[in-house]
């Protein structure tokens, strides 16, 4: 009986299919990604919740399997490349961590979520090197589609949809008038609401268009053309949708039009539009079905990639640096989050010469949003001469997630309220001025001032930059928001009422400081 031969041990399962020179780098990358997701779990959890709960971002649930498929499509060419740890990838990682810190300091969740995704990209660059990145360039870039963005476009898209609707109503000879995003016809009053802005279809089409452009086109000009089609057509289609709802309401009534909109336009119309975009693009597809998505020979022969690859470093050093950068960002954030400005025990409404508190109710309820404020004042003042002004004041010990004085959906126009933006308001010094409207219609001028330190501004961007500087320097400063507003009616104009009130209070900055009891 012949002795049994001893066979070399072979990796089991999936690792048996992975080339030997790829096994350790692949394990290192997987472990690093899992650690980064665990360290920044709060941001990934919030992203997943948005993918699942918000219809605007439901399409992102398909992105992770698509990323896996895209990577596998390039796997045969990528397998021939030897991964090399690369120090410039740490620059990307450091930039992502710094962006996360800034997003955390400013309370901007979009910046933190974008940074969490870019950290994974930076780690891949640092651990695998430039040639692998070139082979997997599109999947790495397409990871940005994991970031739920688009809500910031809603006001702009509402305005565009309303204007397109008016053009189509004029073409079909349906008389109508428009105030911002409100359209009045002889048979009804319509609002191009946030849900009707078309943002969810636009964002989904951008992600879909990018995927098709990469997989089905070789020419960069054709890719650009298809992406332009993927952006323009959804916007135009949403205008047709809004017009169609009003047109149907003109002969079948508003209730029928609303139900038809939810059923046909919500489930069928945009599927047809997506099909139309594909039909238009189909005849211009120029990538052969069996053509490789990556030119492995060009990557191997590239002198530029050869020069970049010389910037190598040991893999253990790259792993340690990625971990150190992530932990440094978290430590910086933890130190800054412990910083808060001292707050008074209470704040009180100031006396305004010539003005008294007024108990009359507005035509339409208006309640500005100041989420997370440590102190809040709301009042209505009148001077007995027909001028009536509503005041909303908020004081914050610090700014952060859930405590954003000028954040999206905060202030004079709360997200999801009955109020909608109509037009820019009359200019006031160092303030943001807006005309907003509620069904009725009821028009209101709202003027907003934001203050921290010596800064008085109406710009949320300037406020966030000042807040970020304070957090970076671990400097505690209070933040304030003041909104003065007046309804349009039969009496004095809203602008006259607010200017009369300001004449009685004196300069805005010291008046806000006195109200907050911080100076």
TrEMBL record:
GO CC terms: plasma membrane
Transmembrane segments: 26-44, 85-103, 109-128, 166-189, 201-221, 227-251, 263-285, 313-335
Molecular function via GO: peptidase activity
Annotated localization: Cell membrane
InterPro entries for the chain: EpsH-like, Exo/Archaeosortase_dom, Exosortase, Exosortase-1, Methanolan_biosynth_EpsI
UniProt keywords, alphabetically: Cell membrane, Hydrolase, Membrane, Protease, Transmembrane, Transmembrane helix
Coiled-coil intervals, chain numbering: none
Domain Methanolan biosynthesis EpsI: 322-509
Transmembrane helix listed as a keyword: yes
Pfam families: DUF3485, Exosortase_EpsH
Chief subcellular location: membrane
Bilayer topology: Multi-pass membrane protein
One biological process term in Gene Ontology: proteolysis
Protein name as annotated: Exosortase A
Biological source species: Novosphingobium sediminis
